[in-house]
Each structure stands twice: as structure tokens, then as C-alpha cells.
Amino acid sequence: MAKIKEKGFTLIEVMAAIAILAIGITALIELFGGSLRSIGYAESHTKAAVAAESEMRNVISEQTLKEDSYTKHSENGYTYDIAIERINKEKTDYLQYELFSVTLTMNYNAGRKSKTYTLKTLAARKKSTVATTSK
User: Fold this and answer.
1) Mean pLDDT of the residues in the chain
2) Would you place residue 131 in the very low, low, confident or very high pLDDT band (cuts 50, 70, 90)?
3) DSSP, residue by residue, 8-77
């Protein structure tokens, strides 16, 4: 009687193939999870940047600016520290305009971390008219 040679995979070969496949799938799942976290962080940073720029536009859109420093809290959980400072006073004394430096520092939470976003700009305002006395 002739021996029939069976063709196929041994149990060890099948187990090795399953282990390699499981490692590959696990790596893909980890990459996918990391991508989702990155997208979440990018979304929170983008929302914070848009909110900070919006608040900065609100501050500099006011007709009159004065030197001041204050903190403002938004309903979105952002905290704004705003500093308005008149600059180059000696150079603008004889001009029609005053020059202000506006610094906005926003504090917010991104996940478990506290983040800070700072914007700084310059704004010029026409000096208010001075009342003259009649003779």
C-alpha cells in the first residue's frame, strides 16, 4: 500500500498566520484611534483660535479705546485676559491719532490639558476733540 501524502497546513502554521494577522489588525486599530484623537485636538484648537479672533475683533471694533486690563469669561468655557496699552505716547502727542497695543490671551481646556492662545495687534484711534473756551 502506498502512503497518501496529505497536503495542507499544519496547526502551527495556521496559529502563526492568525498571530501575524492579529498583530496587523491591532496596529491598524491603534493608528485609527490615534487619528481620531488628533482630529479631536485639531477641532478644539481651531474652535479656540476662531473664538480668540472673534473676541479680538470685538475689542478693537470699539470706537474708543483706553488703557485697561481685564478678564472676561465666555459661556464656552474660555477665559480671556485682555490688555490694552497706549504706545509711543511721545511720538503721537502731536498727531491726530493714538496708537494702542492690544494683547488677548485665551485660556481653555483641550482634553485633560490646559492650553493658552495669545493674539496681539495694534489699533489706531483718532484723538477726541478738545473743547475750546470762547473769549
Assistant:
1) 85
2) very low
3) S--HHHHHHHHHHHHHHHHHHHHHHHHHHHHHHHHHHHHHHHHHHHHHHHHHHTSS----EEEEEE-TTS
